[in-house]
Amino acid sequence: MQKMRKRWLIGFPVLLIAAFVGGYFYFLSSDGNGPEEASDLPVPAGDKDPPLYSRPPSEDRLMQDIHQMTHQKVAAKQKWGALQITQNRIDEMIGTVSSGDYEHGDLYLDILGKWKDGDFTNSVKAHNAIWKLQRGTVGKAKRLSTTDEELKYIRDQFDDKYADVYRGVQDKPGG
To answer: Which keywords belong to this entry (predicted)?
Structure first.
């Protein structure tokens, strides 16, 4: 009886500490509320937009533009700046990076190449990598936006510029 009580007095606190540490690391790595896949909203062609660059942009400008595009796809406490993701912008940026000499060109091409293929699952990593290069301190992305969150962001930031692309996409409760 004494051995069993001793095991209980040692085992229970060890189990409790292990659960606490595991929970701490879980919440540190993820908020646990976001989708595991990027939203499936269509990406407009972008034929209503003028080109972004009349001459090759600086590294800072290019980085800022990609950063602002990620805001459409990620959930973050604060977002400064918005640039809508369009196929034309993705193509223009890939061409710009490919023909330029950018210190972080490989990072930009990795991000943009996946986006060109319609894969936005890298958006949290992309946002935070650029945010870190820009020495960000507030606004780290924690997760991908839900389809409803992204649609609301698009409507809030870009009005109805590409309303025809999003026509038929319904807001769903609880998105």
So the answer is: Membrane, Transmembrane, Transmembrane helix
Alpha carbons 72 and 44: distance in angstroms, whole number: 13
Domain regions of the chain by residue span = 1-30, 34-166
Q: What DSSP line would sit under 32-92, residue for residue?
A: S-S-SS---PPPP--TTS--S-SSPPPHHHHHHHHHHHHTTTEE-S---------HHHHHH
- Among 142, 113, 137, smallest CA distance to 127 is for 142
Query: DSSP assignment, residue 143?
Result: E
| Rounded CA Rg of the chain | 21
Q: CA-CA distances (angstroms) from residue 169 to 26, 123, 126, 172?
A: 33, 21, 26, 9
Residues in the chain: 175
**β-strands 143-144, 74-75: how paired?**
antiparallel
> Percent of the chain, pLDDT > 90?
54
Phi, psi (rounded to 5 degrees) for 149: -65, -40
Tens of pLDDT, residues 15-35: 556 555 454 444 444 444 455
Single-letter amino acid, residue 94: I
